[in-house]
Amino acid sequence: MRKLSLREVKHCVLGLPAPKWQSQEEDRDPRLGEASWGLLCELTLAPHLGFTSLLAEVTSRGLPVNDIIPQCLSAVRRHSLARWESVNELYVDDPDKDSGGKIDVSLNISLPNLHCELVGLDIQDEMGRHEVGHIDNSMKIPLNNGAGCRFEGQFSINKVQNVQGAFNALGGADRLTSNPLASHDYILKIVPTVYEDKSGKQQYSYQYTVANKEYVAYSHTGRIIPAIWFRYDLSPITVKYTERRQPLYRFITTRVIMKFNPFVTSDRSKNRKRHFNAPSHVRRKIMSSPLSKELRQKYNVRSMPIRKDDEVQVVRGHYKGQQIGKVVQVYRKKYVIYIERVQREKANGTTVHVGIHPSKVVITRLKLDKDRKKILERKAKSRQVGKEKGKYKEELIEKMQE
Predict the structure, then answer these.
(1) Do 315 and 360 meet the contact criterion of CB atoms below 8 Å apart?
(2) C-beta atoms surrounding 50 within 10 Å
(3) What DSSP element (H or E) covers 123?
(4) Which of 133, 222, 226, 338 has the fewest CB within 10 Å, making it most exposed?
(5) For the chain, which residues make up each domain, given as ranges?
(6) Given phi > 0 = left and psi -120 to 50 = alpha, else beta, which region is 222?
(7) CA distance 217 to 223
(8) Environment class of residue 223 by beta-carbon count within 10 Å: exposed (0-12), middle (13-18) or buried (19+)?
(9) Boundaries of each KOW domain copy (predicted)?
């Protein structure tokens, strides 16, 4: 199936009927009927709407095109306008105020080389709570024929900062290759999280980042007492994820992509390519420098392409100063100019000119010839015409009154 022209694409996007073809035998597909204009539009816009596979399957199977056009149109519109997006928000609040200052914790940890009778859970915080051997809602399951143990438990901890307690370990974390007598310390930064779906229902949870430390702990008697610590710090910042339907203008601007001027682009890579691959006559215009205040008043021109033997003053950059120097070379390949007294010393003791971009200098004296005088006259004339545009002169007003 043929591609649509730019004029036809405009009709598709704006929802207009099919334009008049110049030649039906040349442009219109004879296999399509009058009602197939909608399918042509959808085939053109399908890559932007995610329906390429659907339309390709319809055309490849030879299904009756005129019958499936309404279904395709409605399906594409529903798919594009019914998309949902997730919006993130940050605010300072306690989202779960009904919990009574508690956080529910589920712990599931496997210790393959520790007997179940040696496994225990201690909970302590700065609110005065200290439980040794917490056993409520907990379970010990032997592993490896009793040589190991899996501990499962559920409990609540207080919402206070800088507290030693037990918390959910990282899922899938493996420390089997560590020192069997080492203690493990996990520092958890907990951020309350709220998720609101499209129906307005909110779910409360927590997300966290973790930093761990492994060390061998000795008691005051010299014995090694391995332990696993989970220390948590609750952040006052709450993250909220809201699911909502994308607005209609987003669909129009992102899904329907048209460019009416093929010679203009905002793509950064294309602009860089055009800048650094520009021919010499284009680089000459790019390498223009502003004129000094005196020259602007004299010639009524703001800037000119810089050339050899112009006298300039560096007004920006590392070599900024009041000293005026003459341009000894214009290096268009690198977009720099060389000034007679702007030099630096190399490691071997020789001095070389430093390249200065034309935008960092001001022209204080022009090297005039007949061609440059014509350029100044032309630019001054066009500038004067621009200033007088839209203004009425006395002679014109008198003629209008007569």
Answers:
(1) yes
(2) 13
(3) strand 123-124
(4) 222
(5) 6-82, 92-244, 279-388
(6) left
(7) 8
(8) exposed
(9) 305-333
DSSP structure string for 354-387: EEE-GGGEEEEE----HHHHHHHHHHHHHHHHHH
Spatial separation of the C-alpha atoms in residues 23 and 20, rounded to whole Å: 9
CATH topology of domain 279-388: SH3 type barrels. (2.30.30)
The C-alpha angle with vertex 264 and arms to 260 and 266, in degrees rounded to 5, equals 110
Contact 53, 72 (CB under 8 A): no
Please give the chain's pLDDT, 402 residues, in tens: 455 555 555 455 445 566 654 444 444 444 444 445 555 555 555 444 444 444 444 454 454 544 555 555 555 555 555 555 566 665 555 555 555 567 777 778 888 888 888 787 777 665 555 555 556 677 888 888 888 888 888 877 766 443 333 334 355 566 565 666 788 888 777 788 888 887 778 887 777 777 777 878 777 677 777 788 877 777 777 878 787 776 666 665 655 555 667 778 888 999 999 999 999 999 999 999 999 999 999 999 999 999 999 999 999 998 998 789 999 999 999 999 999 989 999 999 999 999 999 999 999 999 999 999 999 999 988 887 777 666 666 776 777 676
Dihedral sign (CA 14, 18, 23, 25):
positive
The residue to which tokens 């296999």 are assigned: 31
Q: How many residues does the chain have?
A: 402
The residues, any chain, with a CB within 8 Å of residue 44's CB and separated by 6 or more, are 3, 4, 8, 9, 12
Residue 49 structure tokens: 């709407």
DSSP type of residue 229: E
Residue 324 has phi, psi (to 5 degrees) of -105, 135
| pTM for the model | 0.37
Backbone angles phi, psi at 78, to 5 degrees: -65, -45
